[in-house]
Specification:
The protein is an alpha/beta fold and about 325 residues long. The protein is built from 15 helices and ten strands. The longest helix is centred in the C-terminal third of the chain and has 14 residues, at about 220-235.
Amino acid sequence: MSIKLSICIATLNRGDFIGETLESIVAHGDERIEIVVLDGGSTDNTEQVVRRFQTTFPHFHYIRQERALGVDRDFNTAVEAASGEYCWLMPDDDLLKPGAIDAVLRACENSHDLIVVNAEVRNCDFQSLLVPNLLGFDRDRIYAPTELERLFEDTAGYLSYIGAVVIRKEVWLSRDRASYFGSYFVHFGVIFQAPLTGSALVLGDTQISIRYGNAQWRPKEFEIWMFRRPELIRSLTSISDAVKAKCFHLELWRSPRHLMAFRAKGSYGMEEYKRWIRPLQPSTWDRIKAIAVACVPGVIANAIGLLYCALARRNVATHLHDLKASRYYFANWLRKV
């Protein structure tokens, strides 16, 4: 039987987590799927964990590089090595829910170019449900090739999560990937750089449990969310400026509120100001705002964030999780004093 779906995982030093991820795949797999793991040269026990599955799963390919070339290049290499008609780009620490593979395989039978898989968000040990439905859809949605901007409006915020992407391999290979290496969002660039030739399907039911707060890019989150992602979005000529502006604030660094949020999480300070904002030669007013926020004591910024979460009416579970994980967490400071 030919391979219909390749589950492509790029990993580095995730021996503590990738075994659980692979278990969630293998438990519900069948002969129509393969697993491709691209290891960027792990120095922990990742290789030993992964190779255990090689001996028990019929279509399992483990590729080990001498060193990591970046998450974008590593995922691209995994897709290039895959033999399936479709490729599901899977993080190395999240879990598939029961029935997820069957749901995606059924969707693949309808010859869509892209399938967007919905997810729930849980804490690191999966004991607490933070967000039950990230997309907020309760039904499947289909988008014609002419509806790229509608697809962007409905899913672009969610599609920062690479595990949502199931894409026809020939579509991936036919598009520019190299321009997005280093952006942390190569999949986003591949999808939205031009209209798809076929339809896109968004699955309303959640099929993935995201392990929140465990991302390896966390130390670079200020750089990624403030600059890398906006830069990529601005480069998309297939999406109008009006739609981009409707969906994203592309100059978050000008917003004291957003800077304060990163300050409260411990991701923004004078070092980040000097490295990322000062080289932009901001206006005097923007410079004053950015410096002022960077100088706010982290514990105070965290306390303000916690108060905001307590008063907010919308779902702030992930923001609250980040604030409690911050080195500036106000409750920890109170215990010390």
